[in-house]
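Notes from the pairing session

We agreed to fold both candidates in a single pass and log them together. This is the raw record for the first candidate, unedited. Please don't reformat it; downstream parsing expects exactly this layout.

Candidate A
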Amino acid sequence: MIFNLYVFNKKGQCIYYREWNRQQPAENLAEEQQLIFGFLSAITTFVSKTSQEVNDKFQCYSTSSYKMHYFESATGLRFLINTDPRTPSLQRDLRKIYSEYYVEFVSKNPMYKLGDTISCAHFIGIVDKFITGHANFKSE
């Protein structure tokens, strides 16, 4: 089951957020977004400093109640999807959201100012359609 999607810019600002099957609503979404970005910064730094492999990257974190899937673009955008812990890797899906949807409908949009909150209707619509049509969207 897919709970939510975050997109953070290089500075740590959440520029896109959408939730679908979230069990508990956030008490303070802005605070939650800051905590998640801080966690991502810490865990990616930890992985890069402790890994034996030069190109080893953080991709996933799992607990008994959720699984965090993560992708970071070469430009520093961070894409994160939270799911139930049984969901298989969503790396390909995060890459697709970045390369096919973000690049095409946000970064190439002359009306979009880099770093602003994403309000491009086509991006929002196609990501929503992609997620709600995903095989793991509502699997229980």
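Candidate B (folded immediately after A)
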Amino acid sequence: CLIHFYKSKMSGAVAKVAKPVMRGLHVQSIKKNLIVSTAVALVASTAWYFQINKARKDAYANFYKTYDAEADFQRMKAAGVFQSIQIIEEAQGGGGDDEE
């Protein structure tokens, strides 16, 4: 009598557990993975654009708003950065006296 009691309880518990859905499980998981990966890529690329690219473009724009190339050239020339400037100035200044 006790054996029949446990058999009926166990068979009822096992019968209530649903079977897992195996048909189309691979396709369903691929669809989910594609949607998640697309969302992550979209968020990452948007964050990269606003935090890195846009900030860099704004920094370059702000730099070139006030940049004076001629003043920068004169500063570097006075500091002696360009080695050929001295040779060119000597050739322009003293080159006309040697020719006759």
